[in-house]
Amino acid sequence: MQKLIGLVRRCVEDYRMICPGDRIGVGVSGGKDSVALLVFLAELKKYYPQSFHLEAITVDMGLGMDYSPMEALCDRLEVPFTQVKTEIGPIVFQYRQEKNPCSMCAKMRRGALNQALLERDLHKLALGHHYDDAVETFLMSLLFEGRISCFQPVTDLDRTGIIQIRPMLYIHEKTVDSFVKRFDLPVIENRCPIDKTTKREEVKQLIYQLSATYPDLKERIFGAMQRLPLPEWGPQGRYKRPKDQP
Q1: Where are the alpha helices (DSSP H) in 79-238?
Q2: Quick check: 147 and 141 in contact, CB under 8 A?
Q3: pTM, two decimal places
Q4: How many domains, in total, are found in the chain?
Q5: What is the pLDDT of residue 231?
C-alpha cells in the first residue's frame, strides 16, 4: 500500500496535481482502476501536507449495474458518495443504435459527470488512467489517427472550469490488478455490450505481443512521451522512470 501511494504522491507532485484547499471528485465507474484510485487518494489525504477535500462520483449508465458495493466502500473510507442516474446506455445502444458508440457514450458520460461535479462544488476530477492506458492511448493516436498525441496528466477544461488529473500514471495495470485482489476491493462487472471488443483492446493485445520480443517497449514509449515532451507531459518534479512493479 505505502509503495503504491508513494508512486501516486510522486506523480501528483511531478505534475502539481493537488493544491491546498482543492475539492476533488473521483470518477468511480466501479472498475478496478477507479476503485484503486479512490483508495489511494483516500489514504494519501490522511497525511498529505496540502489539505484537500475528496468525494466519489459515479455515473449510472442505466445498464442495470448495482453500485451499492461502491457506496459501502465509500462509507468505509469516509468519502462522500454521489450516484448520478442516467439512461446513457439505452440511448446509445437501443434508441440511437450507434455504429461507433464509444465516442458518444464518452461525451455524454463526461457531460453528466461534469454537471455532478459543479453541483457538488468540486473543481477537480481525478481519473483512474494508469501507465498502460497512457502507452495504449499514444499508440492508438499514432496507428488510427496518424497523430503523436495522448491525454495530458493535467487537463484544464476551460469551458467548465474543471481540471482533470490522473494520479496513477506511474502505476502499471498489472499492479492495479494485484492491489485490488490483495485488498479484496469491490469491482462491479461492466455490462457494456461492446466491452473487450474495442480498438483499445486491439492495441492492448498488440502491445502484449510486441512485449514478448521487446520487454521494455512500454518503458521506452512512456519515457519518450516525457522526454519529447508531449504537451504538458514534461514532469516538473523529481522524475525517475517507473519500473515494472511486482
Answers
A1: 88-90, 101-119, 131-140, 173-182, 199-213, 217-227
A2: yes
A3: 0.88
A4: 1
A5: 73
